[in-house]
Specification:
about 400 residues, Alpha-Beta Plaits, 5-stranded parallel beta sheet, 3 domains, single chain, elongated, Rossmann fold
């Protein structure tokens, strides 16, 4: 972000660079993401804003900017091909637009607008407080976050509970407050008698205008986050996510006293399969075994690939043991052994029909707190149990200080 001045610019890098050269020493703040731009508009007043188009939801973005900055000069910049999208917005909400490349007069207009005095309020007097608007924009880290935030804020503004429901399930007599379109459209409806104050109306208007852009950002942010925590080959979680999340769960387990058991497993003689059948076959083995493990685990359990053919699985349960004699590791052992048998019987396509029933896995189990109180201790003890399973003939699951499970060769 290029920071400073009274001019806010939303544009991709090439346009930002051309504007930087054209504006010379005129201080300005330049961002490349609509999320960042709206956040800046919610934080402070800007005498002038430049929005580069065309882009998806450009009209909604311009209207949201106008609601946030009622007194600002709002400009658009676009190439000749983008003019049909931008021209209809002239007058409301745009004050003007410029076609690239900008001429000397265009740049002079932007410099004059950037020199205008800055007001004290980011939004117009009838608009919602800037803090509430900034919080809404900041919630765009995921779809659930946006929905939950709107439920909390709108309920407080209208003075009654509200809820998201499908359009065909709106309660009789209820007037929808917001509409979120998309693959799963939903409407926000009051569950009581709402108070439609000017502040509430202004906030609802802003939220409705910017909701498409916010949801687009939320979906993208959610997708990028998923990519950052996922192993690209198997679809399981990656090593970093496993370490970070397991530590968080162990902290909770210490406070709430629930069960946690870690399984560490790998493919017996994996290098031989790679050398004999090729790396494509090895990749298939890893994908198929990860998929089978995810099928037998519960929604809260974590399946992660932490090495070449090494996987870690965290079995945890927020429910406390039903009795003092409960034995959580045994539950994990049963699930792990079911997985071991499934792998042994699975027909891996790339290995051919003659190889069915030859591939096996070995694993080690360690439970919190006896097998360790942090992720590294649990992994170390599970690894020791895994090595015991290997030395005993493979195709087995061992528990630290406990019984094991082994089966047919």
């Amino acid at each position: 972000m290029t920071a400073g001045g009274n001019l806010l610019v939303l544009a991709d890098e090439p346009v930002r660079e051309r504007l930087r050269r054209g504006l010379g020493d005129t201080p300005h703040t330049a961002v490349g993401d609509p999320y960042e731009a709206m956040l800046e508009m919610g934080r402070r007043s800007w005498p002038a804003v430049v929005l580069a188009g065309p882009r998806p939801e450009f009209d909604a973005l311009c209207r949201a900017a106008r609601r946030l900055l009622a007194e600002a000069r709002l400009y658009a910049v676009c190439p000749p091909a983008g003019e049909p999208q931008v021209r209809p917005l002239l007058g409301a909400p745009l004050d003007d637009y410029f076609i690239e490349p900008l001429e000397a007069g265009d740049l002079a207009e932007l410099r004059r607008a950037a020199g205008a005095p800055v007001g004290q309020q980011g939004a117009s007097g009838a608009a919602a407080p800037a803090r509430q608007l900034a919080e809404l924009i900041e919630a765009a880290q995921g779809l659930e976050e946006v929905d939950n935030h709107l439920v909390r804020v709108v309920a407080a503004l209208v003075g009654c509970p509200v809820a998201w429901v499908p359009p065909d399930r709106v309660p009789a007599g209820a007037q929808p407050l917001l509409l979120a379109a998309g693959k799963t459209p939903r409407v926000l409806v009051p569950l009581g008698v709402p108070c439609r104050s000017p502040t509430a109306e202004a906030y609802l208007g802003f939220a409705q205008e910017c909701l498409p852009s916010l949801l687009t950002v939320a979906r993208r942010t959610q997708g990028l986050h998923l990519l950052s925590i996922t192993d690209h080959l198997t679809g399981a979680f990656n090593r970093r996510y496993f370490y970070e999340t397991t530590e968080q769960i162990l902290v909770r387990a210490q406070k709430e006293n629930f069960r946690v058991t870690l399984l560490l497993y790998d493919i017996d003689d994996f290098k031989r399969y790679n050398d004999t059948y090729g790396h494509a076959a090895g990749d298939e083995i890893l994908r198929d075994t990860a998929a089978m493990m995810k099928q037998i685990t519960r929604a809260q359990d974590i399946v992660a690939r932490i090495g070449g053919d090494e996987f870690a699985v965290l079995f945890w349960d927020a429910d406390k043991p039903r009795s003092p004699n409960s034995r959580p590791p045994e539950t994990a052992l049963a699930l792990a052994d079911r997985f071991r048998k499934a792998v042994h019987k699975h027909a891996f396509r790339s290995l051919g029909p003659e190889a069915r029933g030859t591939l096996t896995i070995s694993g080690g189990l360690a439970s919190y707190p006896l097998g360790g109180t942090c992720v590294r201790e649990l992994l170390a003890h599970a690894d020791a149990a895994l090595r015991q399973a290997k030395s005993s003939g493979k195709n087995a699951i061992r528990i630290v200080g406990g019984a094991d499970s082994s089966g047919e060769r």
